[in-house]
Each structure stands twice: as C-alpha cells, then as structure tokens.
Amino acid sequence: MINMPFRFTFSVVAVLGFLFVTESLGDEPVTMTSLLHEMTDRDSVARYPNHDFRLKQASSYNRASKTPDDPKGWFDNIDRSTNDSHKNYVRVEETGGRKEYVVMEHEGAGAITRFWVPWRDQLKPGTDVIIRFYLDGDSEPAIEGNMFDLFQGKGLIPFPLAHESLRSAVSFFPIPYAKGCKVTMSDQPFFFQLTYREYSDDVAVKTFSMEDFTAAKPMIDTACQKLLNPTASAAGEVVDLKKSIGGGKEESVSLPAREAAITELSVKLGNYDDPNVTRHVVLKISFDDKETVWCPIGDFFGGGIGLNPFQGWYRTVDADGKMSCRWVMPYRDNANVSVVNLGDVPVDVELSATVGDWKWDSSSMYFHSGWRGQYPVQTWPYSDWNYVTLKGRGVYVGDTLTIMNPVERWWGEGDEKIFVDGESFPSIFGTGTEDYYAYSWGGRSTDFYEHPFHAQPFSHKYNKLNRKPGNEKNTKGFSTETRTRSLDTMPFASSLKLDMEVWSWTDCEMGYGVGAYWYGDADTTSSNKPDPVEALNVPPLPDMSTADPEVETAPKASSNATEFKNAVECEKMEVVSKSETVVLKPQNLRKLKLKGTWNLDTHVLFKDAQVGDVVELRIPASSPSAEKLVLHATRSQDFGIVRLSVNGKQVAPDVDLYAAKPIPSEAIQLGTCDSVNSAYVLRVELVGKNPQSKDAFFGLDCVTLTPVE
C-alpha cells in the first residue's frame, strides 16, 4: 500500500440556517449532518424528497458513446484515461505550476453522495494520485489527499462511510456545497465515478467545512454504528404465517387494516437443498388493494440463487435461512402479503411481518419491487438489457442482479445507463457492471464481500460460508450483485429507465435476472410484470469442474523450441482493452510448418482486425528501474500497418507487418521506458495496410525486457 499524507484547508461559507438539524424539513438547509441523519432514517426514503434534487454522475465513461443510433460508439469500452488520447474527463488545468485533471464540475447547489475509484493494478493496491475538492469557487481545496487513503475507511472518513471494497475505494460520506463543486486528480484519471445530488434553486445548502466535520464527529460515529448494526423498529404488531405450501399453491396473510407501515419482513424456508427454490418461491405484496410487489425471494432479499448470507442496511440473509428486509412500506387502509410456490414440491414457509405506525401525507409513497428474467441472452453483438422502465412519480432505491455465465472469461464490462424524466442522454452513464456494484477488476474479484449499501453474496462458487482461497480468474457460473441506495436514491417526476449493457469478452448465451426496488405513487407503473414462466426458467449451470476450451487455447511449445531471454509471451499478457471485432487466436507456428524463429514457436494472431482498431496489452515489469523493451512480431500476407505506444507515448515509427509469406519480424525497438504501477501498457493501433496486403490483421510474439542501469 502506498501511503501519502493528506491535508485539509478550511473554507467557511455563510448560508441561511444552522448546522445541527434533527429532521429533514423542507424549510431547513441541507447540511452535512442533515444528510447523515437522512442516511440512517429509513422513514425518509419512503417519502418523496422535501429538498427537491436529481441524482447526477460524473464518470470516466467513453465520450465516443453519444447515441444508440451509433452502436460502435455507444458500446465503446475504453471507459478510462491512461494516456492523453482518451480524455474521458472534463479538462486539464494548470494550478500553481502543477497539472490537475478536472473530473467533475457542477455549478449550483449540490452534494456528493458516492465516490468510487478502482485499483489501477488489479494485483497491487494503492495509488499516488492526489484528489482535490474545490467548493463554491474557492481557489484552495476544502479536501485534499491521497484518494485511497481518504476513502478506504482507514483514514479520516471512517468505515463504513468509506470502504475498501474488492479492489476499489468507495465513499458514501456526504460533501454538500452551496454554489458549486470542482474535483480534480493529480494524474491521468483511470476509472472513476462521482455521484452527486443537483438541488433545485430554492434549496439552501450549507457547504462542507473541516470545522463542521470536527464538530460532527460524535454524529459521524453514531451513523457508522447504526449502519453496521442494522435493526428495525421494535414497536409494532407482529403478524405471522407458518405453512407448508404445495406445488403451484399460494398462501396469504392480511395485515392490520389502518394507516400503518411494514417496518420489518422476514421469510424462512424449511430447507435450501435445491438452490433454485429461492427463484421458484415468490413474494407478493398488495397495498390498498393494489399489488406492488412480485419478486422471487432470492432476488427480493438480495441473495440470488440459493442461500447466500450477507448483511446490509436494508436486508440481511442469515446462515440459518432467515431472510429479512427493513424497507419501510407504508399504506393507508390495508395490506396483504402472499407467498407463492411456483415449484412442484411442497415448501415449508415461515413469514413474519412487523407493522408500525405511519402518518400518511402527500409525500408518502408505496414500496414496489418487480422482477425481470431472461435466458438465454446473447452476448454478441453488444446490447442494452433493461432492468426496469417506470412511469409516474417515484424514487428508485436499489436492485439485485443474478447472472449465469457459461464461460470463465469476464462477463460484466457493460455500463449502466439511467435516463430520468425523458432524457435523450442518460444523466448517469457508468463504466462497468462491477463498478455500479462498487467493486472492480471483476474477472478476478470473485470473492464474497458485504457493505451496508452493496454486496457480492455469491460469485463463481464462493460466498460468505465458502471464501475464495486463491487469486484465480474465473467467473463461470452464477454471480449475484446487489446495491441499495440511501443518499444516492434517484427521484423521478415522470419516468425512469435503467439499462445495463450486455458486454462480455465471449460470444455466448448468458442468463439474466434482476429484482428492482423503488417507491412510487398508486398510479406509478412498471415494465416488469409478474412472469411465473421465466421465474421457472432458471439458467442451467455449465460444467463447473472443467476449464473452458476457448480459454485454454494457448498452444504448447515443442520440446526444442527457442526461448528468448527475458521474454514475456503475448498470450500471457492481460488484455486491458480491445476493439470489439478483434479476435485473439494463439497459434503454434512450428505445427503450421513455418520457417523462422519465434519465442517458444508461438504467437498470437489478432484476427478480424480493421484499420482503426486498437488493442492494449499489459506487460508486467521485471525490474523497478527503467527497462529496454523490444517487440517481436510476425509479418504475413494479410497483415496491416501498426502504430505502437507504451504507457501512452508513441515509441517507434509505424511498422508495416506485410510480407509475401509468414516470417518473424525484425526486432522492433520500443525504447527505454519507466513502468507505471509495475507494468507497461502496450498499445497497438492499426493505422493502415500495405497495398499488397489482403487484410489488416497482425500477429505478436513476445516482448523482451532488459533492465537499464
């Protein structure tokens, strides 16, 4: 871990109102402490916000993504900045002789409610990037420091308000501002997401300051303890249901007929021997004679397929099989809870609902949960898969995604795209499915993790009861990701549409299932309708005992193959990014009876490449000092002209890889380079082709690394 000191400068902004508020009232200002109070007040999420705001996000999404009418740009996957050609940020500024990359800029009143940033190296935590928060136009930052030290829950912002997720730093600590906010980073912004509230003009906001932060320390500690020890209100009438429900049958219980709210709801099954039971058993709830909840219990409580324990602020799944939720669910006159067994065999069910007092007013909303599933889902060509589309007024508060991936390779490159109130371009455009669920490097991050607002209850074959012992990359099988919202809820006045890109590294058929949660008025409608047929269509698991043939394609070297000194084979390099049409095909060149010398007699053919395509490969450094890099490649009758860069700098003249027949290339000098985070990123861009060439493919053998004194 790279540890750097952080410092704070003080900015006091006078606004109407006072710091310590105990209730979120419409005529009181928004402050850091009022937001902390709101974060741990479950009643508040069941009411439409008194302080009108819209949730926005600044992220490193690819700026080539402009419209679905241009599929190539819309699904472009370079959602980061690693060199000056990417520019997935606002701009670059010079401040006091130093370069700062502006990653967020907002004019007007607002509050940052979520910050996420990943490790730059999937095997090495830490960063030396300094993040700075400039509030209300001040020339000095109100917050400044190493962005991992600040936001991993081990420094100034305590856990769980800040959190070291799987290969990520995540913060939910609120940073309000009255007039505007600018956030900068000291180096090329890798991936990032800054989620913030944009308040309407009539909302007064008191800007964050360190004086207020210090004064609020007791309240901050209290909020942390509440989040880590979630309990529902003990007061209320308890209604129970204990039944054996036959196949295809339904059992119901009526709740007290008065103005009230469910404050806690739990379901426990007799056994979970068949993991599909959490998809086949469905929870239904009606409020005031209207059904607003239809969702399989695994998706409703967040555990997915099977029994996968975790604890969150709104939901807990215990190892003994009890699944609980603490969403506050108000109603005016009546409510009914039902459990449906869509399966063939009887299921023993214990259900308990605690009903407490509620004062219904114009801001009160009904709790909704809908489910959508689909199998199969074709991964190529890339597409947007709709979680839910809502019409009317409401607040979106979370979702649980369970996917079935039939192959080892990573499935979740797709970005969330959230359209609010008829937007033509989404106000929230993400950088990857795992980023949306607050972790990173999804191909490797298959271990269990939990946090009050997000969790990965199951991935590949690991959960809380079976932790990942090693560091392998394998995402085959089921994965369940869940996210719930507090300060980052999404109010909508007329509509909300949430799409997630289906963006896998493999052409295959996946299974998708999503339980979504929102509050809405009585006439708010959803695209997700009850679907018993699809709930029974649980995607079949692939053979989990074998590796994928398409992954284990690296050809074996012959016993007398030549081995270059200090060589890193191309097929051993991690693919950081590539154009979607390019296909990697390792080949044994001795078996193809080609004459010449290649390292270990192998190379990787980059098939179906076209002029303009780009591939980026990560090469681990062999020394902490500068190294001389030499590329060995192949020339052939259908190869193109490539432009080569290392760590964002062009390092050699364009190379024409055409030859009348396949032969090894000459040694291509990449120059002497310094590693970044113990690695080099080799960028290969197809810039043209020889008039005699039949195509624009290319083949890469290896890179040799020699330390330079």
UniProtKB/TrEMBL annotation:
Name of protein: DUF2961 domain-containing protein
Compositional bias (Basic and acidic residues): 66-78
UniProt-annotated stretches for the region Disordered: 59-78, 528-561
Pfam family, one: DUF2961
InterPro entries recorded: DUF2961
